[in-house]
Structure formats: C-alpha cells, structure tokens
Amino acid sequence: MARIINVIQLPHLASYKPFNDSKYRCSTVCEYKVMIEDEDGSILVASSLDDFTLGEFDIDEAVRILSKNDENEDWYFAENSRVDSKRFDCFVNGEIEEGQNPITAFYVVLSNLIRSRHPIGDDLRERLRNVGDKIEKLLNTNE
Questions:
Q1: Does the pLDDT value for residue 27 go beyond 70?
Q2: Exposure of 90 by Cβ count < 10 A (0-12 exposed, 13-18 middle, 19+ buried)?
Q3: Helices (H), the chain
Q4: What is this structure's pTM?
C-alpha cells in the first residue's frame, strides 16, 4: 500500500495540459511537493497546486499517474530540468491555447519562471536577453 512520507512546502515550476488533445503544456507554480512511497518502495514526487488541492490529494491516483511516467494525464507535473527555448515556446503556446493573448501568455510564463526560481537553459537566457534589448530599443524610440 502506498503512503505519503513527506509534504514539503516548496514553490516549484510545474506543467499541465490545457486540454486533453493538446500538444502543448501550460506552466504554473505549485506550492507543495508530496513525497510518496509506492508498494515497491519506489519514491514518487507529486505536485500540489495549493492548500485546497493538497486537502483533496488522492494518493492512489497520484501513484497510478506518476508510475506511468507519461505527461498525458490531467495532472500537475514538476519540471525536472532547465527550461530551454523549446519548452518555453510550448508553455507560451499552451497559454495561448487556453485563451490568453500572445503578450499575456509570454508574461505569464516569465512570471512563473521568476516566481518558481526555476533554472533556464543558456539558449533561452540568450533569447530573452535579445528580446529585452529589442523591447528597450522600442520603448526608447517611442518616447
């Protein structure tokens, strides 16, 4: 029988599918990591969005979904590697698919990365620097 061995309040970057048939994912910041020991003694780590979802946490569903090692479920999955340009674009496209306009989608993803303090890849860092430079030039040109 699976059991929760620890709950850690640790804001972290997670992703979810905006729709079942989406090829994109949205980003969010989950407040808790739930450490689970399954029947085989393996440790699984689940993400819980907030106090409410933590109170409604279903350990059996968590084990079923996390054991698949497949992100095609309606579930929050912690990001376990640096966010690169490709993953960043996936997040922005997921937000757009959920109904955000492109600038708001970009802002939401940036905000989630900042809030979670999640590491980013060098390719994304360079790309964001270039965007920042272009925005600065645009703002200075239109004064």
A1: yes
A2: buried
A3: 51-55, 59-68, 85-97, 102-116, 122-141
A4: 0.90
